[in-house]
Amino acid sequence: MKIFILTSLALIAFAANSVLCRLALGNNVIDASSFTIIRLLAGAIVLFCIVLFSKGKTSTTSKGSLLSSFMLFLYAITFSFAYLSLDTGTGALILFGAVQITIIIHTLLSGNKLRPLEWLGVIISFLGFIYLISPGVSSPSIIGFILMTIAGISWGIYTIKGQTSKNPLRDTTYNFIKTLPFITILYIATMTQSNYSTEGILLAVIAGGVTSGIGYTIWYMAIRGLSSIQSAVLQLLVPVIAAFSGVIFISEIITVRLTVSSILILGGVLIVTLYKYSLRNNPGT
Known about the structure:
The chain contains twelve helices and no strands. The chain is mainly alpha-helical. Helix 2 (32-52) packs across helix 3 and helix 4 packs antiparallel against helix 11 (237-250). The two termini are 35 Å apart. The longest helix is centred in the last third of the chain and has 26 residues, at 256-281.
């Protein structure tokens, strides 16, 4: 029950990032750059406090990496600007699909060959992306699609880099802190165009401190009781939760295009994930 509750809270937090960003930028209560800056600052502060007051002791002195912090920043800034033109569910679907495909491509480039059924899953996912952006009344903004794809690739690389971490919470904290130079440059470059309100600042703080900072911490607690296949499959729910949250909180519409694309993209990823799991447990097949 504890793992179930923690996992549910973490998945809701991940989906809430999309909802909060869309609420802030869709209602023009803050600009994308300011949202990104405040979100990363709030995340750094909250995570630092969690590490500082954590009772657990660790022998590792790992403090993240500059590459990971840049990937985190690149994810955050493109994520924000993408949601200027994307609906909540569409953005979450593109983000999640890009993350998973990035990880699959990395696996392929690392010398691990894909089996025919895995290739089928990858092709189905790509077809889902093609259908999503194909010309039509309900097709998403191309600029938004490109930006969110970059965000997904960046988060995918960040995830890959984090797979070797001996202390994910500590590394994530320092990666957030190490985004400060990039945040400073962004602030200097965009301060004359900044536009924010109390509501916008509050949404950015919640997105950074709660659904990102605390959300990541909860997820680390939850995955201790989950297998790798369980954590991978459960994350398929994030775009679905985000889409329905968009309907509830922002009055967005779930289109036929989004539904079909979700089935293709998430279904393709699910095929690859489950097949890898079956190979790992039945190496002779």
